[in-house]
Write a structure and sequence with these properties.
Helix content is about 45%, strand content about 10%. It has about 400 residues and is of the alpha/beta class. The chain folds into three domains: about 25-90, no CATH class; about 140-320, 3-Layer(aba) Sandwich (Rossmann fold), CATH 3.40.50.450; about 335-395, Winged helix-like DNA-binding domain superfamily/Winged helix DNA-binding domain (Arc Repressor Mutant, subunit A, Orthogonal Bundle). The protein has a nine-stranded mixed sheet with strand order 1-2-6-5-4-3-7-8-9, sandwiched between helices. A three-stranded antiparallel sheet has the order 10-12-11. The chain starts with a helix and ends with a strand. It comes from Kitasatospora atroaurantiaca.
């Protein structure tokens, strides 16, 4: 019991300046531990579990599965119950929570201040919780985010376009989201990182697993300059079905999805379809009519399932007009300055009140914070409408 209490205290202790934004009441910890255990028992998107969690707590559900006392109204067949119970011995939430914490991560659940409410649009299929690695706020970074996805075996044209689009979007203050896979995903992440932008990698494995291994350096950089997130607990490896299930999170988390290259049976098209079903903007980039890797995108555009886009400005026109429900207007602040957490306020104070603003190097010197943290705070401030990016400089939004 003493060891368990020490683990619980380590989860509630503030590891850095970001803790003020992510720390949750102690009363949430039993539910957090139970949901962490559930991620070991069920696969992502399990709608049966999702329906149960609207009626009973995760802790109650775990106990009911363990003791075979599941109420009749939960409508659980014996085969499914046996599958859950078979995985129970592998569920050790304290070990998983400590493991991800040691890698600079955390486990967030619905109701946390960091939980992106747009994921609730997935209904019964919304994530039980998300394992997150990195120091930025997922909720704030997701407010102005766009997914850039496509084929793994992409062409040089596709990789070039994805990188250019991601760089342009990052320069306009958008957070680029993708799946950290080979091909278009990797090109999109690299494009955002190359211009000092922030990017989110949604994984089909644990956030402590570098998959694919060829992208291990890229994945580490995403964790430093952005965030890695997954529904799967630490140490879990991907399979074909987990990639498909991961795509629904990318679609729900962002304000729109851009498909750069995709064959007729590409998995990237499933992300586009989920985005469309969730009333998010779906966009496609045209390619050579002779390329099989453009056939899926062309079919999507031709059917009316996606809007043709050619650059970041056209993407911004579409997703920037969705409304105020997922992101505040850039013309003014959403939160008063005195409600900002200290680290964010410190970066905001470093931004000069001039039309030209200042490059990030100068803001690092003025704030005295590490470059990666300054960059993350600037994107958070951009989501809140306090600052905006203009090329390599950051400046205050007029009236903020």
């Amino acid at each position: 019991m003493e060891e368990e209490e020490q683990v619980n205290r380590s989860q509630t202790a503030a590891p850095d300046s970001h803790a003020a934004d992510t720390a949750e009441p102690t009363s949430a910890e039993p539910e957090r531990r139970a949901r962490a255990a559930l991620t070991r028992l069920v696969e992502p998107g399990d709608a049966v579990i999702g329906r149960w969690l609207t009626r009973v707590s995760a802790a109650t559900l775990i106990e009911a599965i363990r003791e075979r006392t599941v109420p009749g109204y939960l409508d659980l067949d014996d085969a499914r119950l046996a599958g859950y119970r078979a995985r129970l011995p592998d569920a050790n939430p304290d070990v998983d929570l400590e493991r991800v914490r040691s890698r600079g991560g955390r486990f967030i659940i619905p109701g946390d201040t960091e939980w992106p409410s747009q994921l609730d649009d997935l209904g019964d299929g919304r994530p039980i919780g998300l394992w997150v690695r990195g120091t930025g706020s997922l909720r704030l970074l997701a407010l102005r985010s766009v997914a850039v996805v496509g084929a793994r075996a992409c062409t040089a044209y596709g990789a070039h376009v994805a990188g250019e689009l991601a760089a342009q979007l990052a320069e306009r203050g958008w957070v680029v989201v993708s799946g950290a896979a080979y091909g278009i995903d990797a090109a999109a992440h690299r494009g955002a990182l190359a211009v000092g932008g922030t990017t989110l990698g949604v994984l089909a494995c644990g956030v402590d697993v570098a998959y694919p291994q060829g992208n291990s350096e890229l994945i580490s950089r995403i964790a430093e300059q952005g965030l890695l997130l997954s529904e799967l607990p630490p140490g879990e490896h991907p399979n074909r079905f987990r990639f498909v299930l991961r795509n629904r999170v990318i679609a729900a988390l962002t304000r729109g999805t851009v498909v750069v290259e995709a064959a007729l049976r590409s998995g990237a098209l499933s992300t586009a379809r989920r985005a469309r079903d969730l009333n998010r903007h779906t966009m496609g980039v045209a390619g050579p009519v002779t390329s099989e890797l453009s056939a899926g995108v062309h079919a999507l555009i031709r059917s009316g399932g996606a809007t043709l886009v050619t650059d970041a400005a056209e993407i911004g026109e579409l997703i920037g007009a969705i409304g105020d429900d997922l992101a505040p207007r850039r013309s003014g602040p959403v939160l008063p300055r005195d409600l900002l957490e200290p680290a964010i306020a410190r970066v905001l104070e470093a931004v000069p009140a001039t039309a030209d603003g200042a490059p990030i190097e100068r803001l690092v010197r003025r704030s005295g914070l590490p470059p990666d943290e300054v960059l993350q705070r600037l994107y958070e401030l951009g989501s809140l409408g306090f600052v905006e990016r203009c090329g390599a400089h950051w400046r205050l939004v007029r009236g903020a």
